[in-house]
Amino acid sequence: MSVGITISHAVKKYGEFVAIPDLSLSIKPGEFFTLLGPSGCGKTTLLRMIAGFNSIEGGDFFFGDKRINELDPAKRNIGMVFQNYAIFPHLNVRKNVEFGLQNRKMPKEAIREQADKFMKLMKIDVYADRMPEKLSGGQQQRIALARALAIEPDVLLMDEPLSNLDAKLRVEMRDVIKEIQNRLGITTVYVTHDQEEAMAVSDRIAVMSQGAIQQIGTPKQLYQRPGNQFVSTFIGRTNILKAHISLAGDIPSLVFPGGFTEKMTNLKDVQEGQEVVVSIRPEEFVIEEKNAPQDRPSLHAKIVYSTFLGLNTHYIVELEDGNRVQIIQESMIQEILNPGTEISLALKTEKINVFTSDGLRSLIA
After folding, report:
1. Total-model pTM
2. Share of the chain above pLDDT 90, in %
């Protein structure tokens, strides 16, 4: 049965170094929750604290209503899937999947039945008698997942499980993991530094940096309304431009270098002349021909080069102030523009994000 996980004011130290200073979060029963961030941000450290592999220097960890700080890892009823699979090379597929069940002293017939169930679920039942070395990386990862799930844990913990696979297998396995998790409804905590992977599998994501959570939200929330500049640049692609606030009556405007001005109706707590950072996703630009009639403000720019990627065409364009930005347009909307073509750019102002000059706080209402 899946349980919720509550972490309250967690602290992790390595000698004098504080890896996690004060971290709190709550994970719902049955939720697929991902810890996302760059290397060294503390995501694996936190996962190992949940598993019981790392000591806890402060705070409280709960599975449901049960405090687990001092509970032996073997008694936490967790399944663990590691980056390097950690399957036993001297055991065949069946014996690998049965390993955790045998440790629980289950009857032989029940062990075999349970192993058969999860090998079939992971589509490795046809390899039951093979040794791991005879299988591909993706198949070995399926073994590791089947072994973790066979014990029917309350919580499934996964530490960068796809990082050793090639690009095609990563996509295949993330679909498998999400499908199985949906089917079983097991509370899952997943660690990755790959934002696309996180967005593909997660119900919610905690974006981490330097041992602290920057923002928690659904993939859509984090992409569309990041809480700070770090989240906006770590989740998806974005262009960062500087601007300042101009107030005309009750409606503030963004004024970019070169004088381009764009009215904004969804800003809060801004002042005249305030310096801000603007995050504009590549698809939040609208390309217009430079000589087209202008019914709204526009930025002047020219095409540096383009990359055709089937459904979309990616452009690098240079603004009048010398800054370069990336733009993504649907390939069917217009012909591919040649390098040197002069264009005008409008903004989808309802979608762009604006932060304080230090990038720490969103100014979107």
Report:
1. 0.92
2. 82
Alpha carbons 10 and 137: distance in angstroms, whole number: 35
Cβ–Cβ under 8 Å, residues 168 and 91: no
Q: What is the pLDDT of residue 297?
A: 66
Separation between Cα atoms, residue 336 and residue 115, nearest integer Å = 54
At residue 84, the pLDDT reads: 82
Task: Specify the 3-state DSSP secondary structure of 69.
Answer: coil
Using the 8-state DSSP alphabet, how is residue 126 labeled? Answer: G
Over the stretch 332-364, which tens digit does the pLDDT of each residue have? 767 889 999 999 999 999 999 999 999 999 999
Copy the structure tokens of residue 154. 């309350």
Tokens 């692609």 correspond to: 237
Specify whether the CB–CB gap between 3 and 29 falls below 8 A.
yes
Helix H segments across the chain?
43-51, 93-103, 108-121, 137-150, 167-184, 195-201, 219-224, 229-234
Residue 73: both structure tokens together: 């890892």
Query: Is the pLDDT at 252 greater than 70, yes or no?
Result: yes
Q: Which residue has the tokens 């010398």?
A: 322
The answer to whether residue 107 scores a pLDDT higher than 60 is yes
Residues 6+ apart with CB under 8 A from 97: 115, 118, 119, 143, 146, 147, 150
Compute the distance between CA of residue 66 and CA of residue 88 in angstroms, rounded to an integer: 32
Cα–Cα dist 209/23, whole Å: 11
> Would you state the torsion angle of the CA atoms of residues 345, 346, 348, 349, taken in this order, to the nearest 10 degrees?
120
Residue type, position 199, single letter:
M
Rounded Cα–Cα distance for residues 166 and 296 (Å)? 46
Supply angle C-alpha 127, 130, 135, rounded to 5.
75
Residue carrying the six token digits 């694996």: 44
Cβ contacts of 184 within 8 Å, gap of 6 or more: 149
For residue 27, the one-letter residue type is I
Q: How far apart are CA 27 and CA 34, in angstroms?
A: 10
Exposed, middle or buried, 308 (CB in 10 Å: 0-12/13-18/19+)?
exposed
Number of H helices and E strands in the chain, helices first, is 8, 20
Q: Please state the rounded mean pLDDT for residues 119-129.
A: 95
What is the model's pLDDT at position 189? 98
- Contact residues for 247 (Cβ-Cβ < 8 A; gap 6+): 253, 270, 271, 272
